[in-house]
Amino acid sequence: MIAILCLFLLAPFLSNSMETVFNPTKENLPFYLKLEQQVKEKNSILCVGLDPDWEKIPNDIKNLITMNQNTLNFTTQKTNIIKSFLITVIDRTAKQTCAFKIQYACFLSYPGLLEKIVNYIKKDHKDIPVILDCKIGDIENTMQFYVDYFFNTIKADAVTVNPYMGQDVAKAFMDDPQKGCIGLIQSSNPSGAEVQNSIVSYTNPITNQTSNITLWQKMLLLLTHWNQKNNIGAVISGNLSPDYYKWIRNTVGQDFFVLVPGVGAQGADPEKFLTYLINEKRSGVIVNVSRGILYNYDINDPAWYLKIEAAALQYKEAFNNARFNENF
Questions:
Q1: What fold characterizes domain 27-321?
Q2: Active site residues per annotation
Q3: How far is residue 135's CA from residue 194's CA, in Å, rounded to a whole number?
Q4: pLDDT tens string for the chain (328 positions)?
Q5: Can you give the residue ranges of every domain in the chain?
């Protein structure tokens, strides 16, 4: 009788404990589940890139710097103005984007700005994952310091990594199943082909067959082999042939995410890659647009924020038209 009474009194606590274990909140979902959830909820594979460029900031907020020259130093004023600009971008595009990709290099001249922007997203748009684009690659010991800074201090959900030094370089970022490691595999910059398209031999570890393929294809095969915790993705440009995109999806499987840059200012056509790269669930790809959204206005236009909002919606709809193409 006493045992039954104890169980009755403890039932609410046991129930809450079980909910914590078996029903994780959106905040503590692993990166790729969090990303997939945003794709479904927003019906969007658009990833908005946050690449602040002082020269392209709208004049109506940039001119505020002349009003406070005696109270703040120049760098601090610029940092505050860029922060204000980025917060407006985030708020105006949050309904259309499944992720924000932050270009790390663009923040280095503005002390504390990176932390403030990530904190703002985590506070006001906490369900949207943050990808930190830094394409780092170094020896394992050094990479561990990057892991600590980017994941524990900055609180990013995923980081882009250059895996061309080998598995030990990416290992530190692959160890945490809650975080995403996105390997730079094939890029759209003109001279990238000089290295990435080099022909190399590859021996399949399962069939033991050897074939000649491009270096970037070998790196993608290695990356999929390293993906033991289902937390690895790949950066692939939008400028390849349809046959390559078919090969990529067949190689990585249905649950592997690919981040495609180069759309917008760099001119990649979503129709040409999404038709073949998208998976059976019409997902598995996120498409980044940075300058095509952030600076889609005349710097003298006082309604610049409306242009940003309209551009995000336009790209989202264009990507959806391509991924739900009836000819797929």
A1: TIM Barrel (3.20.20)
A2: 135
A3: 19
A4: 444 434 333 444 344 433 334 345 666 799 999 999 999 999 999 999 999 999 999 999 988 776 555 556 888 889 999 999 999 999 999 999 999 999 999 999 999 999 999 999 999 999 999 999 999 999 989 999 999 999 999 999 999 999 999 998 888 889 999 999 999 999 988 899 999 999 999 998 888 999 999 999 999 999 999 999 999 999 999 989 999 999 999 999 999 999 999 786 556 788 889 999 999 999 999 999 999 999 999 999 999 999 999 999 999 999 999 999 866 4
A5: 27-321
